[in-house]
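As a warm-up, study this chain.
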Amino acid sequence: MSIFNVWAEHHSEDFIQMNPLMKVPVMKDGDFILGESVAILLYLCRKFRAPDHWYPADAQKCGLVDEYLAWQQANIKKHCAKVLWLKMVIPHFFKCPVPQKCLDEAITKLTQSLDMLEMKFLRNKLFLAGDQISLADLMALEDLIQVISVGFNVFKNWPWIKIWMGRVEATLGHELLEETRKSIMNLKNTPSLSSDTMRKFDIMKSMLF
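Now compare it with the structure written out below.
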């Protein structure tokens, strides 16, 4: 089993043949190919029969995990990724200035999502879906690390997020977190993109700004 998540690889011909969606991550398990991070996590839970707390068998507990996973796609995940692109990826890799207005608007939307994350999903709970860690917490942590890596303070105005993140990190362990965060925290040290990729980005800029 392998997961392809190399920078810009998703625009290569080999990758497109495997996943026409041109998105990472994508998983290949033998002849079976699966895209979308949530779908991959659910598949791995089922295939390897992960401990129940990750994706509970109980309908109501599972419903709470599903609720967050459905919400985060158009909220935390979307806005964290956009702030990462505007603050780091576009100016650093593509050497393209980002209009301050675009960055301000992205941060405003991220702030609104963080307010909802704290008010709806975190307040008075140990973890996002209840008393035990679940896939919801993994997804949220991964998204927030993206904006933390570019200097956005997710703790300043959201004390429950700080408490929750400390609890998740203590549950997962320092060694595992260091391993999984290495790539995103060192993103600025990644070599420049090829001229071909730069040309493709010129076509996509209007979709981001």
